[in-house]
Amino acid sequence: MPYITLRDGAQFYYKDWNPSESTGAVLFSHGWPLSADAWEKQMFFLAGHGYRVIAHDRRGHGRSDQTWDRNDVDNWADDLAELIEKLDLTELVLVGHSTGGAEVARYCTRHTTSRVAKIVFISSVVPQAVQSSISPDGVPISVFDGFREAMLKDRAQFFLEVPRGPFFGFNRLGAKVSEGLIDSWFTVGMQGGLKAVYETTRSWEVDYSGDLKALDIPALVIQGDDDQVVPIKTGALAAIKLLKQGTLKVYPGGAHGIMDTQPEDINNDLLGFLKA
């Protein structure tokens, strides 16, 4: 299994499919509390169209080491920089879902866009997920406090309730529920270390508007208008106003986990953006 050793000695897992292809490289960054496996549908599709596709398990998640500290967006960006430099990736397209959107944005502003050609935000927490003076339509801090309390009280139960309800929109009337998706989300989420998935929620309170304003590369912003995790007004509709070269795609009725609920739409939109 492919790992790199990070600056603090932590083992950092990644998957690298179709590495011999020269069409281009796409690097995926997952959301909370998942792993690289969240991107399998997109990776399989794009690899089949000739792209090299890479995804990692954020520190504390999946198969990467469960480090006690450095579970914050600046260190995630530094980890990502080490992986990109180790693989010597150039003309890269970065794709981030939810928390992963913050990670790829912060990589670009904390490190460089010299290796990056384009960036994609899907259901992302940028520019700021929490309700604040600059994000009045954001999620009240009490909701995130409730997340943290629920994880400490009974993480396993909470990690069943999230995919059964808001994440995939399975709590909506008439929704086609996939027990497989619920079980998969639960299993992958429980692989993560408690401290890492707990501390990740603090990254949803960070203001990323400066990161978005600084981006000087084409950006695709995708979100469903029925996202119950990150309200679209504080997510995509706010982000697109800050990007110099942004393109917005809104999925009517789309949930937060649209890579799984609408994979064909996501795959085709990604492919179109890559080719543009």
What does this structure look like?
With 276 residues, the chain is of the alpha/beta class. The protein is built from ten helices and eight strands. α1 (40-48) packs across α10 and α4 packs across α5.
Q: Summed up, what is this model?
A:
This protein has 276 residues and is α/β, with parallel strands linked by helices. 39% of the residues lie in helices and 16% in strands.
Keywords for this structure?
Alpha/beta hydrolase protein; 276 residues; alpha/beta
Lateral arrangement of strands in the main beta sheet: 1-2-4-3-5-6-7-8
Q: Assess the beta-strand content as a share of residues.
A: 15-25%
Mean pLDDT: 97
What is the CA-based Rg, rounded? 17 Å
Measure the end-to-end span.
Answer: 34 Å
